[in-house]
# Entry
Amino acid sequence: MMSKESKDLLDSLLNLADQENSSQLSLTSIKHLLLDLFLAGIDTASSTIEWAMAELLHNPEKLTKAQTELRQLLGKGRLVQESDINKLPYLQAVMKETLRLHPPTPFLLPHKAETEVEISSYVVPKAAQILVNVWAMGRDSSVWQNPTSFMPERFLESEIDVKGRDFELIPFGAGRRICPGLPLAQRMVHLKLASLLCTFDWKLANDMKPEDMDMTEKFGLTLHKSEPLLAIPIKSESLSTCVDWGDF
Ligand code: HEM
# Structure
């Protein structure tokens, strides 16, 4: 059924479960683990990409800026790769700004206080359920200038990152229970967004104008656009630097 040499995640887990004395890793645990990864990793990443595209289409000059950065880096005839992400500061700033305004899990996951604790003269009782409102933190006017504006530029001159060390921006949480998928999410989201931006030009469906877009949010399992984004990809001559359209 499976090759012992294979190295993907499922093979590794099945290999572990196969080993003698590995009763701790049952097939049921493997199924639950994979379901957890799908639930935690798909909706969060896809909603981040949808919001980033929506904000860029809503702010066309920022869209042009992100595409120009990509085009200048890639030159002619090559697609963006994971190793390019470090050289794309504006793309990274777009990601951070998207996660600041639209964190996919606006209250993180529920936590529970193990002991009574006092923070800034507020007492959190033992066993209290803690929800951290990262959505409100991202829009706090005492921390962010023009908090409701989409301004990736604010991150260009700033060291603030989403890795759990800068508490004004913790869309992945912080500390021991920080999102374990953070490194994967960062790679996936940057790379997919960059591919969409460098491969196509974009316009809104139904001749909608950017200023008429509905940017309201809908909270379900994760925070989505209330109106799903409808955007049309256009084969772009100006951006054909990234793609040899002969391949399509
Ligand atoms: C943009 C994408 C993502 C965002 C914003 C995000 C955010 C979060 C947040 C806020 C938490 C809860 C942290 C806390 O309560 O302290 C979390 C937990 C988790 N995330 Fe992510 N996540 C993303 C992508 C992923 C991916 C791609 C995976 C794996 C494939 C993943 C796997 C998990 C798991 C397993 C947990 C639960 C960890 C635990 O209970 O200790 N996430 N994520």
